[in-house]
C-alpha cells in the first residue's frame, strides 16, 4: 500500500439540482457530526481475530454482498457541493474497485515468527501514518494471515469516522455475521440495557387529589435539581471552550510534537464475570466499574511513569462519548442498520490518585456518573454542536463502550474469536474503548 500524499479534503464538484432530485439515493448531505469527523480526520480501526486462516476469496465475496449492499457509505465518496455558495460536503455514490480496498501486506517473516502479537500491533500502529485516498470510498481491509496467541488470523478494517460511528459500524458487522451454532441466523444479542436516571425517565406527577404534598414537593424538587445540574454543566462547557484547562501531565501532548505522530493501539482482556460481580456487589452499572478500572489503571501508570512522590489528587477531565440513538435492542439495530454519526458527549472528572481501597475508584466513578444522569448536558452538547457546525462550520474539536453479541459469531463462514475497536485523530490524547463480547478459545 502506497503512502503517497492524497488530498485531505473532499473533492470539489458541482451537483446539479436535476440530478439530486432525480435520484436522492445517489447524493446525500453529510451530517454535522460527520462534518466534524471529516474536518478532524478521525478514523476508526477495527481488529477482527478469526478462528481459522483467512479465506480471501470468500471474505472478498462477503464484503461485496454484505457491506457494499447494506451500507451505501461503503460505496460513496465525499464531495463539496459547489452549486451553493457555502459549498457543503455531500456523499455521492461511485463505482467501487475492490482491488483498491483489499490489502495483503508483506511483513518481515522473522519478526512475525518471533513475536506475532507485536507484528500485528506494529502494523496496526503504522496505519495511523498512512493517508486515505479521498478519490475512492474511505475504507480498506488489511489481511494478516498468520496465527497469534489470540487468533488464527487477523483482519484489520480501517475506515473514516465520517462513514459512521462505532455503533453503526459494529451493528453493520453484527448484521453481516452469522451464528456459529446456526448459520441461518444472526448471533444472539444481549438484552437491552436498563436505563435509569433523570435523563431517561421522569417520575410522573402525583395527582393533586391525593393530598400527598411531600410527594408533590419531591417531584417538583427533582426538576429543580435537573435544571441546576444542567446549568452547571453548560457553564462548565462554556468555560472549557473559553479558558478552563486541565493541569499539564504526561498524558498531555507536548508542544512541538508532530500531530500525525505514530499512534499505538493496544488491548487487554478482562473477565466480564468479574466485572459483573463487582457491579452487583457495589450496586452500580457496568460502565461505572469500567470507568473505575480505567481510573485505577491510569493512576498506577501515572505515578509509576512520572516518579511523582506527591500523592495529591490530580483532577483531569475525560470526554465520554454517548450514543444518541433511542434505547433499543441490538436485534432491532441489526434488522435496521442506521448509517452515519449520532453521537453526543459528556465531560466527566477523571481523578488521578492512589487509593488504599481499589474499590474507591469505582465508588468515585459511580458518584459522578450518577450525577451526570441528572443533567441534560448530553442533549445540550448534541443540539448546540450541530447548530454551530451548520451555522459556522467546524473550528475545533476518550472513553467509550459498546456491547456486542452474546454468543460466538462467524464472519463470512469463518468463526470470530476477537474484536477490538479504536478511533484515532492526529491531535488526539489517549483514548479508551471498552468492548464486550463473548470470548472463545481457539
UniProtKB/TrEMBL annotation:
Bias kind Polar residues: ranges: 1-10
A Gene Ontology term for the protein's cellular component: plasma membrane
Organism: Triticum turgidum subsp. durum
Main localisation: membrane
Domain of life: Eukaryota
Molecular functions per Gene Ontology: diacylglycerol O-acyltransferase activity; long-chain-alcohol O-fatty-acyltransferase activity
Protein name: Diacylglycerol O-acyltransferase
InterPro entries: CAT-like_dom_sf, O-acyltransferase_WSD1-like, O-acyltransferase_WSD1_C, O-acyltransferase_WSD1_N
Region (Disordered) residue spans: 1-27, 180-202
Pathway per the UniProt entry: Glycerolipid metabolism; triacylglycerol biosynthesis; Lipid metabolism
Membrane topology designation: Single-pass membrane protein
Domain O-acyltransferase WSD1-like N-terminal: residue ranges: 68-289
Amino acid at each position: 500500500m502506497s503512502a503517497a500524499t492524497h488530498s485531505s479534503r473532499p473533492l470539489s464538484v458541482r451537483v446539479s439540482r436535476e440530478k439530486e432530485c432525480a435520484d436522492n439515493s445517489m447524493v446525500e448531505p453529510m451530517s454535522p457530526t460527520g462534518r466534524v469527523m471529516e474536518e478532524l480526520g478521525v478514523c476508526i480501526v477495527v481488529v477482527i481475530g478469526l478462528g481459522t486462516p483467512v479465506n480471501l476469496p470468500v471474505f472478498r465475496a462477503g464484503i461485496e454482498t454484505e457491506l457494499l449492499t447494506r451500507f451505501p457509505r461503503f460505496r460513496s465518496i465525499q464531495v463539496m457541493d459547489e452549486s451553493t455558495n457555502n459549498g457543503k460536503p455531500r456523499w455521492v455514490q461511485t463505482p467501487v474497485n475492490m482491488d483498491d480496498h483489499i490489502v495483503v501486506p508483506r511483513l518481515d517473516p522473522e519478526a512475525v515468527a518471533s513475536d506475532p502479537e507485536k507484528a500485528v500491533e506494529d502494523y496496526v500502529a503504522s496505519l495511523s501514518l498512512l493517508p486515505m485516498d479521498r478519490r475512492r470510498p474511505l475504507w480498506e481491509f488489511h489481511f494478516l494471515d498468520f496465527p497469534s496467541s489470540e487468533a488464527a488470523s487477523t483482519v484489520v478494517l480501517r475506515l473514516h469516522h465520517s462513514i459512521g460511528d462505532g455503533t453503526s459500524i459494529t451493528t453493520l458487522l453484527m448484521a453481516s455475521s452469522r451464528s456459529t451454532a446456526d448459520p441461518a441466523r444472526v448471533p444472539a444479542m444481549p438484552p437491552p440495557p436498563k436505563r435509569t436516571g433523570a435523563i431517561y425517565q421522569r417520575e410522573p406527577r402525583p395527582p393533586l387529589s391525593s393530598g400527598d404534598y411531600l410527594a408533590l414537593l419531591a417531584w417538583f424538587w427533582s426538576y429543580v435539581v435537573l435544571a441546576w445540574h444542567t446549568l452547571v454543566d453548560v457553564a462548565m462547557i462554556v468555560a472549557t471552550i473559553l479558558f478552563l484547562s486541565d493541569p499539564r501531565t504526561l498524558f498531555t501532548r507536548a508542544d512541538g510534537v508532530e500531530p500525525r505522530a505514530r499512534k499505538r493501539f493496544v488491548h487487554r482482556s478482562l473477565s466480564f464475570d468479574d466485572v459483573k460481580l463487582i457491579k452487583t456487589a457495589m450496586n452500580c452499572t457496568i460502565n461505572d466499574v469500567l470507568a473505575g478500572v480505567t481510573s485505577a489503571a491510569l493512576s498506577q501508570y501515572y505515578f509509576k511513569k512520572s516518579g511523582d512522590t506527591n500523592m495529591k489528587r490530580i483532577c483531569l477531565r475525560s470526554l465520554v462519548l454517548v450514543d444518541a440513538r433511542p434505547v433499543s435492542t441490538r436485534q432491532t439495530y441489526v434488522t435496521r442498520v442506521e448509517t452515519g454519526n449520532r453521537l453526543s458527549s459528556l465531560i466527566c472528572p477523571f481523578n488521578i490518585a492512589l487509593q488504599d481501597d481499589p474499590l474507591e475508584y469505582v465508588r468515585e466513578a459511580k458518584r459522578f456518573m450518577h450525577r451526570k444522569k441528572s443533567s441534560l448536558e448530553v442533549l445540550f452538547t448534541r443540539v448546540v454542536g450541530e447548530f454551530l457546525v451548520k451555522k459556522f462550520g467546524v473550528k475545533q474539536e476518550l472513553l467509550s463502550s459498546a456491547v456486542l453479541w452474546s454468543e460466538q459469531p462467524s464472519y463470512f463462514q469463518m468463526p470470530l474469536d476477537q474484536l477490538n475497536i479504536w478511533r484515532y485523530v492526529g491531535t488526539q490524547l489517549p483514548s479508551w474503548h471498552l468492548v464486550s463480547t463473548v470470548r472463545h478459545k481457539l
